[in-house]
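Lecture notes, structural biology module. Today: joint structure prediction for complexes of two components.
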Amino acid sequence: MLKVIKAGFYTTIQDAGRFGYRNKGVPISGVMDNEAYNKVNGLLENPTSTPILEITMMGPELVFTQPTFICLGGADLSAQLNKVSITNYKIYKVNAGDTLRFGKLNTGLRCYLGVKNGFNAEIVLNSASQYAPLTMAVKLEKGDVLNYGAVNSFQPKISELKAKENYAKETLLVDRGPEFHLLTDNQLAHLFSKQFTIAKENNRMAYQLHELLVGHNTSILTAATQPGTVQFTPAGRLIILMKDGQTTGGYPRILQLRPEAIALLAQKKHQDKLQFKLADTVF
Amino acid sequence: MSKSDNSKHLPIRIQPFGQKAIEITWKEDVSEQILSANLQLTKALKKKINNDWEFISSYNTLTLIYNGVELFSYKELVELIRKEYNNLVLTTSKRHVKWILPVCYDEVYGIDLSEAANFLGLSKNELINLHTEAVYTIYGIGFLPGFMYLGGLPQILEIPRKPVPRLKVEKGAVGLASKQTGIYPQASPGGWNIIGNCPVPLFNVSKSNPCFFSVGDKVQFKSISQSEYEHIKIQMDVGIYEPEKVVIDA
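The predicted structure, tokenised, for the full assembly:
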């Protein structure tokens, strides 16, 4: 078991996502930063879509009651195992009674904690991803216990990745969205030359941007949206939908982030800067 | 109707929606004919495309979203869509499923019913009659799991959203807002005028098919008393309630 001594700011169980129900209005959910998740799961040699903890900004305090192997990835939250600093993308053995704590946020926003073979979590519609409208538990709370199978021995093929993430990068690679053609020359010029700032309204559903473009009065009939869809409101605001974002919307969908841009954005927080760069379309 | 006529009458535009999705668009109209073409194309494509793809039909768009990892050829997919669409014999059949959804309009639930009736210059009964006589079409599902976008609200029932949205609207609340009527599938903030409550859950994760209706189905509301409402709730709790369905073959 993993005992939650302190909950931290916002920690949820996530996996690769809940697919196949978008036509019934169910967002895919799943980890915000697929790249960090895949590396952590890869090092632990876990199957794809293994449940993991997504730890946002301020980490919890956790006690392991069984031996296993863990790996952290994504944001650097100054993790300490029994008061000794540990690094991301490295496999550590933990024993019964070991304590994992987090401290200062150094880089990124979302840190991933994986255990060998994953956490045993509530499965709803084929996914362990916590999402308030569907799952009983919504986030980690003080006093919670998470189950995992004890693992005594594991010889990882690779025990550490040396490459460090660059979350300071500001450029998000995007493709044209279905309503890209509605943009005026003026709006286009701003969209691709301005530096945008992430507003305080940013969460697993969507990231709003602080700077406005010149507004418009075009609405569209409700149509599908995806994680990474950039919506453009009549007031000129840009809203980037994320993993828990609604599956349809009525605002023009002007851009679509590339998957790696979604992963990068997931590591950005209030006041961080970004710029859009249109990809060379290769379709 | 000949095959070539179809595509002439209902032209489509196909465009990429990022690297992982492709979208088919008809003219920007709320139209039964477009929705029907949309659903018939969906059905035809589902037979040709593997289940790494999700299909989302909504009004005049059909969006195909890819969950797989292999690369796919956008060009080949466009060709397939064109071919399947051109080969479709668009039927004019009016056969569809209609769900009869019970609604208790008692003011215990219909907290804005009086005010809405006043605003519209109707009696409460007239409002309820108009709301239950109309047959609505599900043009889309989204916003929340199991939230229906319904078309077909009588113009006489169009009322603006409330100036200040409520922080919490109850699960099952039936609302009116401009050209829309619908049911909140779960408690959420909302600005619609609440005229009743539907005891039937619209999204139930414990069922293998968590959401019994689909885009293209019809919906009609049926006025029920408070005791009938309570009765259906009990039937729900013990798991014996099945939503009432009729197949229309007009």
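Point to remember: Helices of chain B lie at 3-9, 32-46, 74-87, 113-120, 124-133, 226-237.
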